[in-house]
Specification:
There is one protein chain. By secondary structure, the chain is mainly beta. The protein is 4% helix and 18% strand.
Length: 89
């Protein structure tokens, strides 16, 4: 009997995705707006609105207005056009 409450063991397999590619690792967007920074008086480079996305080789480095941050294994973006579209088939 299948336990429907157990998570899948991998990201990409035909049983989970059918003919569609699984994109789970790419579907992460953290958006921050109206951020107020405290502490250091030198906040000239502090962003008020930004987005954090994961680093996916040959994918996220092509996004406009995004800068790689090795410390978080991701990118910081000032591009306001990033989002996630979700649908079920």
């Amino acid at each position: 009997m299948t336990n429907f409450f157990e998570p899948p063991m991998s990201w990409a397999n035909l049983a989970d995705c059918g003919n569609f590619p699984c994109t789970g690792p790419k579907n992460t967007v953290f958006s921050f707006s109206n951020i107020k920074w405290v502490g250091n008086k030198n906040t000239a480079n502090a962003l008020e609105n930004f987005t954090l996305i994961p680093k996916i080789e040959t994918y996220t480095e092509k996004f406009p207005d995004c800068t790689a941050l090795e410390g978080i294994n991701g990118h910081i973006c000032t591009n306001n056009d990033l989002g996630i579209l979700v649908w079920e088939s």
